[in-house]
Specification:
Length: 433
């Protein structure tokens, strides 16, 4: 295949990938919105609602390592399409149950578990396939457009979900999701996942690795990649400390500041708008020359924004001023999230070998998914016993200090040797004969 045809095909992939992600993300979030409302209306129990969240988080944590192994060993196109078909069938099963005997909590929990597993396999495999779908120069564009579709779905789905929930029945909701999922299957089936892939071909007669051996090989590969390990550790610290922000933000605004639900919703929407606008900007600008340096200062800025959430607890604000302050803060947080994630993800896509991408990204997802609930539980307890402002300020300080230590100048120079201005090339001395 000629280079011009491959580039044309890569452009097609960019748009197909984005539209497919938008459709499936939008469908999933509208479904999640509707099911959450349905459970609360059916039971009025926070425990039932929390159980559904656990049914979503726990399978992702447990299945991510297997998803990574499968993504590295089998056809990525087959995995993505199979996962999407399984999603469609699971929703079809829930639709059948709702029409035959009415929705029950067991049926909802079972479907949530299946959807969590399929989205894990699909997500890890799609992330591992970026460098196979598009040319190297447009990896940042692909990552940005992917984030753009997720951000747009995050903004539009609560509005669409709220509108539909009041006007249509639950079976209609499920039919809409099935149509969205089926459309995603059709789009994904037209994509060539090996267009730019650099995976090693399987040699006939070569002994095959077991799943355990393959996972060990993935961990061994990671241990040899000190820069990737540094990025992963920084990501885990962020995910853990992010629990202080996630729990504290809602607690401070609703409990301490007594903010109206409509205004609280607008501040949350400002976060998604910030992410969307930054994703659009990232999709059209050229790649950053020093992604780790950009990521480092982005995380430091995020630490200051996180600490600033506590400011209205220390200084008196008028209600409108407080609302505007938090809206701007969340908008900034959304911008910083993409400003940090996109360059780092592009860097990792280029650094990790194609044959190990699935396992590396799945290890990262497993550890992050395990740490987030732990962080939320720990900070939930701390907010009940300690002043909220000091928890946030301490967490933001720890985040900034950890980043300065883990992404110290020597580590950044290792990632970007051209930043090392101490290296002076000595001129060659020519001895006259």
């Amino acid at each position: 295949m000629s280079e011009a045809i491959k580039l044309k095909r890569a452009t097609y992939h960019l748009w197909t990938f984005t539209i497919s992600k938008l459709i499936s993300s939008f469908g999933a979030q509208v479904y999640s919105f509707a099911i959450s409302f349905y459970i609360l209306q059916l039971t009025g129990s926070a425990t039932s609602f929390a159980t559904n969240l656990i049914c979503s988080i726990l399978p992702r944590t447990l299945m991510a390592p297997f998803a990574g192994y499968v993504a590295d060993k089998y056809s990525r196109k087959t995995i993505v399409i199979t996962a999407q078909i399984a999603t469609t069938l699971a929703i079809g099963g829930l639709l059948t149950v709702s029409l035959v005997s009415g929705l029950s909590l067991i049926a909802i929990y079972t479907t949530t578990v299946i959807l969590s597993i399929t989205s894990t396999f699909s997500g890890v495999t799609f992330t591992s396939s970026i460098t196979g779908l598009v040319d190297e120069k447009r990896i940042q564009k692909a990552m940005s457009m992917n984030q753009m579709s997720i951000s747009f779905a995050a903004i539009a789905s609560p509005a669409a979900g709220g509108l539909l929930y009041g006007t249509v029945t639950m079976p209609v909701f499920l039919i809409i999701y099935m149509i969205a999922s089926s459309t995603a299957v059709l789009l994904e089936s037209t994509m060539n996942f090996t267009l730019f892939a650099k995976r090693k071909e399987v040699v006939e007669g070569e002994p095959k690795e077991s799943m355990l051996q393959s996972m060990k090989a993935g961990l061994s590969y990671l241990r040899l990649q000190s820069l990737i390990m540094t990025i992963i550790w920084i990501s885990l610290v962020i995910n853990f400390l992010f629990g202080a922000f996630q729990v504290g933000y809602s607690f401070i605004l609703i409990e301490k500041m007594k903010m109206e639900s409509t205004h609280f919703g607008i501040t949350e929407g400002a976060f998604a708008v910030g992410m969307l606008l930054m994703s659009i900007y990232m999709s059209v600008r050229k790649e950053f020359k020093y992604p780790l340096l950009i990521g480092k200062w982005g995380i430091v800025s995020m630490g200051f924004v996180m600490g600033a959430v506590a400011l209205p607890l220390l200084v008196t604000f008028q209600y409108n001023g407080m609302f505007a302050f938090y809206a701007v803060l969340m908008f900034s947080f959304g911008i910083l999230m993409i400003f940090i994630n996109t360059p780092i993800q592009v860097m990792m896509q280029k650094m990790i070998d194609d044959d190990y991408k699935g396992r590396v990204f799945s290890i990262l997802e497993t550890m992050a998914m395990a740490l987030m609930p732990l962080g939320m539980v720990l900070f939930g307890f701390l907010y009940d016993v300690l002043p909220a402002q000091w928890i946030l300020i301490a967490s933001s300080a720890v985040l900034i200090i950890v980043v300065f230590i883990m992404a110290r100048p020597s580590v950044v120079r290792k990632a970007h040797p051209e930043l090392d201005k101490t290296k002076v090339v000595k001129p060659e001395i020519v001895h006259e004969q």
